[in-house]
């Protein structure tokens, strides 16, 4: 069953009197209980896509077109008041470096309790009990509920943010590079935890990551984004064994650039396109070693090769 369906989503930013097409016709589905990866180089529109699902776009951004169907309703059409009922309660997000968003002068337990009281019909006692339960869930010592954020390490604070994101038992959790700010050991602990909780609570997840090992360990499927579009989407093993767009194979075989830890690959020559005047045809054609004449002129349509594997490429895997 589909829990979320994004249809032909377009998100534009106003910048210096011009319009930047950060997300330009993106469609994908998220199924019950699955984890879907969202991958692609910096600036391809991953965070913008995630924020639009939460309806948390920056001031200068607007949803120009599309539908985001959650449980049969279009989130884009919801009023601000109604979207607040969905946000955190049904769909929540863990940001990169979210741990720095905690209020330094309020105890951690109190902050989670506030989140529960704000979004859920729980009384004070119930909320207090749930905070302890959440601490247990994210494997933090219950005695620490009375401590302040500065008394926690970075990894522990990110656990707190996960607890916060889980506070209202959402159906969908979005992780936008949720562990990037943490050291490698803590990263794998946090992912183990997220995986365990997902299984226990039956949550679906959208995971934005630049880490290919995390991607294949955590996600069943992935959507490959480039220049505001999805170029390919499929099960992880389909993308690795039978990439249909050259960008997918270049991305998946690239190594993360350690000097710029957050950025995805370093080994694809050239730069992603500007999104104010993106290239005609296939957006990847200026960097594609296999580009044909048609790739410069015509945008490739989305084709399905299996029920789960779709792609946009004029060459259709023949490269
Ligand atoms: N508030 C904004 N105003 C103008 N342009 C923006 C704004 N936010 C993002 N953009 C632009 O939108 C495009 C997509 O950005 P986005 O942050 O979604 O990319 P991303 O895939 O999450 O990248 P990263 O991997 O670096 O996090 C980029 O070109 C970015 O510069
Ligand atoms: Mg981002």
Would you summarize the structure shown here?
With 319 residues, this protein is an alpha/beta fold.
Q: What can you tell me about this protein's structure?
A:
Strand 9 and strand 10 (about 230-235) form a beta hairpin. The strands form 2 sheets. An 8-stranded mixed beta sheet has the order 6-7-8-3-9-10-12-11, with helices on both faces. A 4-stranded antiparallel beta sheet has the order 2-1-4-5, covered by helices on one side. It has a single domain (about 1-310), classed as Rossmann fold (3-Layer(aba) Sandwich). It has about 325 residues and is of the alpha/beta class. It is globular. The model has no long low-confidence stretch (mean pLDDT about 90). About 30% of the residues lie in helices and about 25% in strands.
Secondary structure elements and pairings:
Layout (H helix, E strand, L loop, with lengths): L1 E14 L2 E14 L3 E5 L6 H8 L7 E10 L2 E2 L5 H7 L4 E4 L13 H12 L4 H14 L16 H13 L5 E5 L7 H18 L2 E5 L3 H7 L2 E6 L2 E7 H6 L4 H7 L40 H5 L4 E3 L5 E3 L7
Parallel strand pairs: 3-8, 3-9, 6-7, 7-8
Antiparallel strand pairs: 1-2, 1-4, 4-5, 9-10, 10-12, 11-12
Bound molecules: adenosine-5'-triphosphate (ATP) and magnesium ion (MG).
């Amino acid at each position: 069953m589909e829990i979320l369906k994004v249809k032909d989503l377009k998100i534009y930013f106003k910048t210096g009197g011009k319009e930047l097409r950060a997300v330009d016709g993106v469609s994908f589905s998220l199924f019950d209980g699955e984890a879907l990866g969202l991958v692609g180089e910096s600036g391809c529109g991953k965070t913008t896509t995630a924020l639009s699902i939460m309806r948390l776009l920056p001031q200068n951004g607007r949803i120009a077109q599309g539908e985001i169907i959650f449980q049969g309703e279009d989130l884009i059409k919801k009023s601000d008041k109604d979207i607040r009922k969905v946000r955190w309660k049904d769909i929540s997000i863990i940001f990169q470096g979210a741990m720095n968003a905690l209020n330094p002068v309020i105890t951690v337990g109190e902050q989670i309790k506030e989140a529960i009281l704000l979004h859920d019909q729980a009384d004070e006692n119930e909320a207090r009990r749930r905070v302890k339960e959440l601490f247990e869930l994210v494997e933090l010592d219950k005695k620490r509920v009375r401590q302040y954020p500065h008394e926690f390490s970075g990894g522990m604070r990110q656990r707190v943010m996960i607890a916060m994101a889980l506070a209202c038992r959402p159906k969908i959790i979005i992780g936008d590079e949720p562990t990037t700010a943490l050291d490698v050991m803590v990263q794998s602990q946090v992912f183990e935890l997220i995986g365990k909780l997902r299984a226990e609570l039956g949550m679906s997840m959208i995971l934005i990551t630049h880490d290919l090992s995390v991607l294949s360990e955590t996600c069943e499927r992935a959507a490959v984004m480039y220049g505001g579009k999805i170029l390919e989407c499929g099960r992880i093993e389909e993308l690795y064994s039978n990439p249909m767009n050259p960008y997918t194979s270049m991305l998946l075989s690239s190594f993360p650039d350690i000097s710029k830890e957050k950025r995805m690959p370093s080994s694809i020559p050239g730069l992603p396109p500007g999104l104010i005047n993106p290239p005609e045809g296939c957006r990847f054609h200026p960097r594609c070693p296999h580009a044909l004449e048609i790739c410069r002129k015509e945008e490739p349509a989305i084709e399905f090769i299996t029920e789960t594997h779709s792609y946009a490429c004029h060459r259709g895997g023949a490269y």
